Amino acid sequence: MRDIDDGAHPPALILRGLRKSFAKTAVDGLNLTVRAGELYALLGPNGAGKTTTLRMVAGLLPPDSGEIEVFGVDARRRPLEAKRVMAWLPDEPTLYDKLDPLEYLEFVAGLWGAEPRRAQRLADELLETLGLWEHRRERCEGFSRGMKQKLALAGALVHEPRLLMLDEPLTGLDAAVARQVKDLLAARVKEGATIILTTHILEVAERLADRIGIIQRGRLIAEGTLVELRGAGGRDHASLEEIFLHLTAPGERAA
Amino acid sequence: MKLRPGSFSWLAAHDLRQTWRGFDAALGGLTRAKAAMLAGAVIGLHAFFWWGLRHYGEVADDARLSPYIALGALFVLPGIVAQAVTAATRALYAHGDLDLLFASPISARAVLGSKAVAIAANAIAWFAILLLPLANVNALAGHFHWLAVYPALLACGLFGTGIGIGLALALFAAVGPRRARLVSQIAATVVGASFMLGLQGYALAPGARASLARAMQSSIDNQWLDWRGWLSLPARAAEGDVQALGVWMIVAAGVFAAATFALGESFARAAIISAGAPPPSGRKRKPRAFRASLGATMRSKERRLILRDPWLISQIALQVVYMAPVSFVLWRNGGATGSPGVVFAPLIVVVGAQLAGSLAWLALSGEDAPDLLRAAPVSPGRIERHKIEAILAPVAIVLCGPVVALALVSPWSGFWAGLFTLGASVSAALLNLWRQSPSRRSRVLQRHSQSKIVGMIEHVLSIVWAVGAAMAVMGSWSALIPVAAACLILRLSRSRTARLSFAAGA
Asked: pTM here?
């Protein structure tokens, strides 16, 4: 296991008593801490509040109450400062059909105020790594879902965020593309970035995540490394799938 | 009556239902209140024509009527052909249900035929709203031959649709799938606007009306051997010439049937090719360094999105083209009064406001990736400011020519036209900023169906600025009154609750 958060740096993300209600409560007083430099997988059944939570952190949805701190910055009071170090990748990538990949990456780098020459070099590298270099001058309207997902990921990385939040980044990708994305994420964490991802593919969380948080009905019901989760559930050899189903089973109340 | 599933009539009924639902959606759902308003509008149109007939009854004199009916046919046919070219091209590229239909055991001819029926019905409906009340009122006044407009219009719809589909497929075959969409849009715009250009020629040439009347008369005298007889066939059919009407209906039905029967396979082939066609690739440019400034990046992004969408450009260009005949009428009147500035400055202002309104909506409400902008560390105000800068530049470029031309004739008129156009454009942009209605970019011309109040305010503002421009050209200080009124309307229309901009959510 890699060393993460030696205590000298503030955590990448702290949520305190975060609440959000629509017709019913989506996030219910969520408390969560993600250390700097770790890959944190946020799991939960459909409608558990995972995407709502991340959208509030990204500044796309105002919380009803609670605190959000990104690398020590109060994201509710100073949203622009917090956004400067964050990137958000939604499950449905939103691109501009009439722009080509390089133009899209230039636009995103411009939005985040990235140093142009550095961003351009990184954009070229990302397009090479993700197998999009040959398509750099083609408009996005003809891209497959996998290509769009990869370009959106490149957009999230081109301004070198310290905190990267990904909502279901591997859904709908074929095995080869999914492998590319997983390798890229692992490399970013190795370089010191913090990644929070939601996923329904539990194997991904099991293999990639330093720590796993499980939320249900807007509350954190379990958190820890895979070993810790096994210990908490009293199932030493259980798979993450078994632990997840056990913890989120109707009527089950975990800590 | 229950139609047999899989039959042509069943398929045509399905396509007609889809067309009706598109119309219903454009109205935001046809409620009883809206249906009553529509019925009221149709009755009002009848009343208007009745009033016109009472006051200008002599126009209905058959001998003088011919040129007007010929003009009507000139108006209807290009309009229907343009609609059919656009609809057929969009069906080829948007695909929609084509994959499903061509995967089913229904013939390609039946698929094209049912689509053609829906296209014709849609095109006929738009012209029927205007032309049928005129025919009804004249028939009520005892001119029963006016009822020939009904079958003549139906025949125009079939003929125009057949020609339009043929034209769309010919363009597809000629220029290939990658360019056919752009070329078809240009062709549809030119065909649709040809009536306007014709009208200008008609208005400008002193003897045009008389020669048109002579052409119609001579073709009747010389009968079918004269080429003019065939060209004026739809006009004479609409005029109630029974023989011409019969021939016109046979010709139209023949063209429609031949087009759908002969082109069914071509349509299916084109649809399959267009599905696999790569999108237009960017031009081979030398790699260019990323821009350092956010403003330059935002402006270039908006400029690229607009310039790379030929459908949007053609739709916006049509707005300008449809203003052209008005400008000629005004020019003649202005020329008569010796003050072209009084009539031209307001016209430039109105066109500027319309352009700015469309472009502002595209940039502000038609944003494809709003979450990306909201998640960026840039204040919403800054993003909006750069977006407005981006749209004002093309408005300035388009209107620079007319303003300079006016300034050469009358410098003060040019100055006031420029100033008031700037005011009208900025106010249209601000209105769209404060009252955003997010939607797909392709809905730019239907944007007001989402928010009728914004559409109304936009029109009122453009008129108020135009009135101000006319007053300023006349040298009247009372031009300040419309300016103050426009500012007041803008202030009142600012609604914080309606503002959906790229605000930081947290």
From this structure: 0.67
